[in-house]
Amino acid sequence: xxxxKTIGKVYMINGPVVKAKEMTGVMMHEVVKVGNxxxxxxxxxxxxxxxxxxxxxxxxxxxxxxxxxxxxxxxSVILGPGIIKSVYDGIQRPLNVLRNxxxxxxxxGVNADALDMSKEWEVEVLVKEGDRVxxxxxxAKVKETASVEHRIMIPPEISGKAADxxxxxxxxxxxxxxxxxxxxxGKRGVKLYQKWPVRVPRPVKKRLAPSEPLITGQRVIDxxxxxxxxxxxxxxxxxxxxxxxxxxQLAKWSDADIVVYIGCxxxxxxxxxxxxxxxxxxxxxxxQPLMERTVLIANxxxxxxxxxxxxxxxxxxxxxxxxxxxYHVALMADSTSRWAEAxxxxxxxxxxxxxxxxxxxxxxSRLAEFYERAGKATLLGSVDKVGSISIIGAVSPPGGDFxxxxxxxxxxxxxxxxxxxxxxxxxxxxxxxxxxxxxxxYTMELKNWFDENVNPDFANLVKxxxxxxxxxxxxxxxxxxxxxxxxxDDQKLVVRVANILKIGYLQxxxxxxxxxxxxLAKQNEMLKLILMYYDRAMVLVSKGVAISEVLNETMxxxxxxxxxxxxxxxxxxxxxxxxxxxSLFDSLNKKYNQAKEA
Amino acid sequence: xxxxxxxxxxxxxxxxxxxxxVENIGYNEVxxxxxxxxxxxxxxxxxxKNFAVIQVFEGTEGLNLNETRVKFLGKTLQIKxxxxxxxxxxxxxxxxxxxxxxxxxxxxxxxxxxPINPASRMYPKNFIQTGISAIDGLMTLIRGQKLPIFSGNxxxxxxxxxxxxxxxxxxxxxxxxxAIVFAAMGIKHDDAxxxxxxxxxxxxxxxxxxxxxxxxxxxxERISTPRVALTAAEYLAFEKDMHVLVILTDMTNYCEALRExxxxxxxxxxxxxxxxxxxxxxxxxxxxAGMINGKKGSVTQIPILSMPNDDxxxxxxxxxxxxxxxxxxxxxxLQRKGVHPPIGILPxxxxxxxxxxxxxxxxxxxxxxxxxLFAAYSRVQxxxxxxxxxxEEELTNADKKYLKxxxxxxxxxxxxxxxxxxxxxETLDIGWRVLGYLPTSELTRVNEEEIKKRYKAREDVx
Lengths: 598, 462
Ligand SMILES: Nc1ncnc2c1ncn2[C@@H]1O[C@H](COP(=O)(O)OP(=O)(O)OP(=O)(O)O)[C@@H](O)[C@H]1O
Ligand SMILES: [Mg+2]
Fold this sequence. Notes:
Bound molecules: adenosine-5'-triphosphate, magnesium ion
CATH class of the largest domain in chain A: Alpha Beta
Structural class of chain B: alpha/beta
Distance between the termini of chain B: 84 Å
Oligomer: heterodimer
Number of strands of chain B: 22
Number of helices of chain A: 16
Number of strands of chain A: 26
């Protein structure tokens, strides 16, 4: 389908913002090629034949009078086999291909297909000539990677009768798998790929309420502030508090089928780290390299800010496409603050009226639109499938101050808040997620799931631990003023157990071989034991046994080190700890009873 | 193509001049501005149909509207680079100022560079031993890292930088060809002199490339200085296989120049009057560090910045911390106590150390010891705060041990002479020695085998 191409002329250049004239007929958000170098840009405002263009590449050297060419297409992504394992920039240019074309530094005006159009895939066709097909229906399957079966779907808005259906076999992306004779007349070919405009959410049948957790293997998250599949979470924190490491941990260990990782205005080396590390790491659930389920969008801080703005949409559209296949997708965006700053920068160049801190007034609605693309849903198609997108966004507040606009607006649209605490990070308490300032609104909705799948008493354990934390917090205020010695024994015990929980449970090194990922069953065992220690010790202390008796050094040491000692696949070793705990307290009890009798 | 030359300006505003009725001018193009036979350079920062806004590097002082001539050079700001730049001194926009000749052979490079394709990078992992315990043990420098020093007026950042450059070496393997690129932005003559003469002393001077924009040089030129310097660094690293250490000082002066320019352009300011794009602008500088797959060389950056009012949340250190791979923060309190180098370890960090230390890199116990020292020293701070309220005598036994540890840590581990060059093993051993003040039950970050092998209780510790 060839639209009439508009050709106009540049008349003003201000960084990534370019104005052009004589552009009658060009569409809002149409992709245009700017200047002799054919830099990629997008129309962001229209006035008569006068347009404003956001250019996704450096504009140095561009001159007034150079041509601007419309493409007749909205800013879109190409969706089909070959996406997984790719690294794209913010507008889906494949960085590996660009490297082969133009070397180690990104040159301007270089373009490449997002997917390899010539590669042949083994396709299993699932429909027959004459079948009725509906939007979202899976009509073919391709083994895309060791971990992912790529399901070729009828694009939204197309339904009718399947004709010219090809046999299963090897095809490249451009091959016509079948033709749909549309209900309202006309025909549409279905290929291995489809295009979708990034700023438009892909439709679903019905949104569903959250009911199962996205298991992250991070104790502080899964136990205390869980996120559901289809949920949203924000990780705010000053520099160096652990946003990226947490995002990487989730990308590695969460039980999603597909991971879309967007490096949005952050460091190049952090992308490299994923690229080098993920092919080496194994997915604990299927033994395949983690890269086999991962897509990377890398628009680093030194790449054009306008493409940074687009990167979020590119990523979430790819996520929606895999959700539509019936997958649980986890999307990480690091950092949404850099995306918001890109909005601000472009808005500034457009001389729009700023709202708070120079951000445009539409910051909040853009954030809402983005996070609303998360969710769990029944999907389009001939049979009911369920898929989800969970979005986890890092937020980088200036000066680490959570009262700034991006954090406060984000808070309105997310349901998990994992607040990173600078003082915890300084003390190298990692992950430095504050147990006092974080929250999850999913706890209630997920309670049933934990009851059935982990331990019917799990919610109680969690509540008990949280009570210890909040009591400890109050006591810490006192300790800061008068020291620990003056506390009565039962309160001393609270402080000591809180300490065991902090060191032995909350702290979890991302770099530990044994502990980087902790199964829910292990979390349950650990929490049970620490709280069992607390309960039994408290009984003795309240009977008047000296605290020094119950603070058994070996026992405490065991509780603090069990996370590193007992791997996920040897959970029966917890029984031994439980036994020694029992016998310790039994003998203390006996001693106490004997003393009482004497 | 003939160069376009125009006579007369329509407006002068701070560092900006406006020229009307121009044609065919490119965005970011370089211009020569000639006034009564004196030449200065500028760059186009905005163009419209027949109108250009130019930022004048040497400032607009003494220009007038009707006589000033503007010559558009048809290219962006470039410098000529080759190995001839080694040992030479240039001004902030890359012109030789050491009395020597212009660079004869070489290639022209756009000073803005191009972003390294993230898919081309190689993750930096090689440990650089600086011989300074605080750094090697706790915030290890890695080849290809960008690790700034956050300092303040009167703190010894220059001395620290000099010690690092003198002592830096790779462990084990050949260090390869190395070079130092030194870019001074708005610093005092004395400071520049101190740094340069120390290079001379160490015999490294023939491998040093210097770019000087000193305190009394034109402010606006500073915007180009780090870019020019990094262009030379990238050339030496990625085309000549050298390991280049880049020292950029003082980034605060750079940011102030940027703010001045932004204000003159009438842009909407963000925090403290700095432009909203300060983050992206700084990233374009700091991200020009690293290693590339298949290339031998590397660019390691040590930017130095002074925190206005020692405030780490000020936009300059804040945004820098958000971009760089950690930071070394100097502490006025330690300086007062006479600890040299006064590195405040708790707010300091090296993000790349995790893959460059430990077994096969430094020593197997390194990750745990460093984590333990951080945790223990952070407890020391709390304990000191408590002691100042209730008095030392009232502290628990455990707390008293922490105070002892804290003292020893500052005296034995952090403090060292300016000439003292410690091996990493020595640094780690000192770490264990000071941990000897704590009972093993407090050492939860190191494992039991390590305790057995390396821990020795000190003095009254049972
Ligand atoms: N779970 C963890 N385990 C071990 N170390 C951690 C953990 N989380 C964070 N760290 C340490 O903290 C450092 C900084 O973390 P990270 O890079 O994630 O910070 P950030 O919040 O993303 O910072 P920025 O905003 O500057 O990107 C890491 O390099 C690592 O040393
Ligand atoms: Mg980060």
